[in-house]
């Protein structure tokens, strides 16, 4: 009676010891379609034949003495690991390879691991870059198509609300669509990200949102430069107005002064003809009349002209030259008379 429990205990210990001697790793592996899958099987016990089964079907056989035996499946192979272990290699995984991977040590033990194959599709944000005013509601649509399993879809933008809908298409692939509603607050990129567990980095599709009003309202520091710019503009406008006023005033003064200059020019031209030509004198063109007004000058010029019409002057030469001083005494008297007459004429002043 006492020996039976002892036998059961010894048998269970032997089974645990045999199980502990065989190792299969990893017990679960997730890869992307087209990637390589590797499983390692080892045992400290003596074995003769190792058989690898994929979804219950024998795929590869390894002999401890010979090594890898020829296989009908060119997509599988094996590599020697340390000790008596072997690495089962599935070169390019496909969706139908997903399932169980079993290492069977003939006559000793077998262990099974799980292989998961995922497929990456595409992600797209529809439309082009958008322009919006601050506070305006903007809609975006993103679609992730051709994924397995159903991907995780999310938006990378602050203060936004979105919904997600999915459907399964042919070949057990999933298409996920999401609509995003965002309130325009600041210019930024709107990113739509899709991923599955086997992806190290999510796939990303991006679109640009430009907020127009932020040019003035985004930063409070813009108030000071804007005020300074407005002040400088007003000052420049005032200076320009003053310059225009001064120019107009000077132009009007020149227009008023032009009649007086015309009178002086008329006086210098017409007054020279009867008197200056007769006397051989010159009129001072720089003379400025400070006393009488324009009307007085006009009357004076008219009176002088009327007087000069009744007066005739005889041209007397300023210098009298003689070719010979010893001709006759009568000639000398005429010269003396001419000199006295010329001296009297030089006293006449032309006005």
Helix/strand/pairing category: alpha+beta
DSSP summary: helix tally: 6
Number of strands: 18
Give, in order, the helices and strands: HEEEEEEEEEEEEEEEEEEHHHHH
* Radius of gyration over C-alpha positions, nearest whole angstrom: 60 Å
Portion of residues in beta strands equals 25-35%
- Largest sheet, spatial ordering of strands: 2-10-9-4-5-6
* End-to-end CA span: 170 Å
Mean pLDDT: 75
Runs in which pLDDT lies below 50 for 5 or more consecutive residues are 4-10, 15-20, 215-220, 269-279, 310-351
Largest sheet: 6 strands, mixed
Would you write up a description of this structure?
It is a single chain. This protein has six helices and 18 strands. The protein is an alpha+beta fold. A hairpin with a 5-residue loop joins strand 7 and strand 8. Helix 3 (223-270) packs parallel to helix 5. The longest helix is centred in the C-terminal third of the chain and has 48 residues, at 223-270. The protein is rod-shaped and about 155 Å long.
